[in-house]
Amino acid sequence: MADVPVIAVDGPSGAGKGTISHMLAQRLGWHLLDSGALYRVTGHACLLAGVSWDDHAAVAEVARRLEVKFTLAASGEVQVYLQGADVSAAIRTEEGGRGASTVAAIPAVREALLLRQRELRRPPGLVADGRDMGTVVFPEAPLKFFLTASAGERAQRRHKQLIAKGESVSLPRLLRDIEERDARDSSRAVSPLVPAEDAIVIDSTATPITEVFARVWQLVIDSGLA
User: Fold this and answer.
1) Which tens digit of pLDDT belongs to each residue from 122-147?
2) Residues linked to residue 61 through DSSP beta bridges, in sequence order
3) Is there a domain that residue 226 lies in?
4) Fewest Cβ atoms nearer than 10 Å: which of 41, 51, 93, 111?
């Protein structure tokens, strides 16, 4: 499937890459890879199985045996199923985010999930949302974006999302969690969170998501992929 085009969209949590990836996939009619969900599911599966995130060998085994399925709902949201059960809401919690970041730092887990991610590259094309899509998973992708935003702005965005869902959460704690996750993701030995050398870096801190998408879409058109 090397001839199937890929658009890689990387960046830290809360920078807008998920929203941009969904919008791109829908506009292009391409498949969508939410790689973060794979790591969230792995962390969640460990909790269900009573496996500590610190037990690297056991976590890697969970990743290798993962029975996961993704579907795209009419709303455009990705629905995630673990062993036939819908875990979409469960893995989108703050605990789910911490689990994803923790297990993603385990080399054997990343190796176990690498092939699974590449298998999702199918015609007519794939929009790959993650942290190492353009550097490790699809380094040959013809178009790569790296979305970023300040930690404070990303904490504010996440806080609003959680409040809208009826969840009570401390903004200072969210900011601390985001800063800790950034540190883990950018300093891990395997696949650290860094822009690919040929990625187009976009800072969305002070830019509405509609304007970010308009810029991204124009670059997609300019590249000949649309």
Assistant:
1) 999 999 999 999 999 999 999 999 99
2) none
3) no
4) 111
